[in-house]
Amino acid sequence: MKGVIFNVLEELVIETSGMEAWNNILAATGYEGIYTSGDSYPDEELFALAAEICKVLNVDLATVIGIFGEYLFDQLDARHPVFVQQSSDLRSFLVSVDTVIHGEVLKLYQNPNLPRFSYRDEGDTLVMNYTSERKLCILAEGLIRGAAKRFNADVDISHPVCMHDGADHCQLNVRFK
């Protein structure tokens, strides 16, 4: 996982719970907490930090990951606004993720291990098929919610197929209201 993801997680914890909470999370996990945005760190380190955040906040992992996804979208947009500015609406932005945005991410970071998306347009619903060995589909949902807020789009997201239930991909249905 790229260090920028850890940087944003740290920012979220400090913004919502303070520096002491972040330091306590680091102490509990045994991690140093110094992350360079372009460097890669073990996925397990991010998962351990997220698990400790769950304990500190007394919320489940899906909630933490979803909230982080929304926050992550805002922070990535602030760092790289050109990605969002290229799209006129949420739908065009979402269908640009796999080819355009991930293509640009590959130019910025070496070996980012990005998820893959394929799409099917069903009129008022965009079906997004997500595949990743990390199985961070809940993070993808949070990112979509963050993007919807950015584009002022009213959407419902359903998740009828999931790798956590044994499927080979996740299906995220984004219904535009």
The geometry reads as globular
Quaternary: single chain
The strand line-up of the biggest sheet is 1-2-4-3
Corresponding CATH architecture of the largest domain: Alpha-Beta Complex
CATH topology of the largest domain: H-NOX domain
Count the domains: 2
Order of helices and strands: HHHHHHEEHEE
**What is the SS-derived class?**
alpha+beta
Give me the Rg, rounded.
16 Å
| Average pLDDT number | 94
Q: State the low-pLDDT regions, or none.
A: none
Residue share in β-strands: 15-25%
Please estimate the helix content.
55-70%
Distance between the termini: 34 Å
Given this structure, which CATH class of the largest domain is correct? Alpha Beta
Summarize the structure in short:
This protein has 177 residues and is of the alpha+beta class. It has helices at 3-17, 19-29, 43-57, 61-79, 81-85, 90-108, 137-150, and strands at residues 116-121, 125-131, 155-161, 170-176.
SSE arrangement:
Elements: H1 3-17, H2 19-29, H3 43-57, H4 61-79, H5 81-85, H6 90-108, E1 116-121, E2 125-131, H7 137-150, E3 155-161, E4 170-176
Helix pairs in contact: 1-2, 1-4, 2-3, 4-7
Structure report:
This protein is of the alpha+beta class and 177 residues long. The chain has 2 domains: 3-59; 89-176, H-NOX domain (Alpha-Beta Complex), CATH 3.90.1520. The chain has 7 helices and 4 strands. It has helices at 3-17, 19-29, 43-57, 61-79, 81-85, 90-108, 137-150, and strands at 116-121, 125-131, 155-161, 170-176. A 4-stranded antiparallel sheet has the order 1-2-4-3, covered by helices on one side. The longest helix has 19 residues, at 61-79.
